[in-house]
Amino acid sequence: MNPPGWQQLKTQVIDAGLCTRCGGCVGVCTEQAIVLDDLMGEALPRLNGTCESCDGRCYAACSGDYVPFPGLNMFLHDRQPHNRYLGNFRSLSVGFATDPEVRAQAASGGILSAILIHLLETHQVDGAIVTRAKPGQPYLPQPVIARTPGEVKAAAQSKYSIVPVNAILQQLAEVEGRFAYVGLPCQVHSLRKLQAAGHPAAQKIAYVIGSYCGLTLHFESVRSFFEGTRGSRGGQGG
Ligand SMILES: Cc1cc2nc3c(=O)[nH]c(=O)nc-3n(C[C@H](O)[C@H](O)[C@H](O)COP(=O)(O)OP(=O)(O)OC[C@H]3O[C@@H](n4cnc5c(N)ncnc54)[C@H](O)[C@@H]3O)c2cc1C
Question: Angle CA(226)–CA(229)–CA(235) in degrees, nearest 5?
Answer without folding.
Answer: 105
